Amino acid sequence: MRRARPSSRREPTIALINIVFLMLVFFMVAGTLARPMDNDVTLVRTDALEGRPPPDGLVIRADATLSYRGEELASAGALLPRLGTEANPEVRLVPDRDLPAAQLVRIARDLRAAGAGRIVIVTERGLN
Question: Among the residues of 4-55, which ranges form H helices?
């Protein structure tokens, strides 16, 4: 008969590390990362608020067509002469939600190259 080899007793450290890592991820996801709002504050409801773009905003539709105050524009650079004689004017962009980001960046670069100063993107803000 052969003698059985004495097995070396190793501690299952890898399993322990995996469990600790999973617990860390769980508590990071389940924990509160931001301070909760004050319970005494009731937020304003804006369900029935009529939303409309600012009148001086360059509206960019989903197909990248541009309009300013209801008038179609051929290019982003055509907007700056309409804003007046101010050097480096501020430009407000009102992009459509479905406009590709690459198109928005291209239009912003065109405006910057044409002499626009600060470029502000008007968006819809949600809290939920």
Answer: 13-30
The predicted-structure confidence for 19-31, as pLDDT tens digits, reads as follows 999 999 988 888 7
Q: Which residues of the chain have pLDDT under 50?
A: 127-128
The answer to whether 87 touches 97, Cβ cutoff 8 Å, is: no
For residue range 35-57, list pLDDT tens digits in order.
666 676 666 665 665 555 555 78
Residue 58: phi and psi, rounded to 5, are -80, 110
Cα end-to-end distance, the chain, whole Å? 73
Question: How many residues does the structure list for the chain?
Answer: 128
Q: Is the dihedral of CA 97, 98, 101, 107 positive or negative?
A: negative
Q: How far are the Cα atoms of 31, 54, 83, 87, 110 from residue 117, in angstroms, in the given order?
A: 42, 18, 12, 8, 12
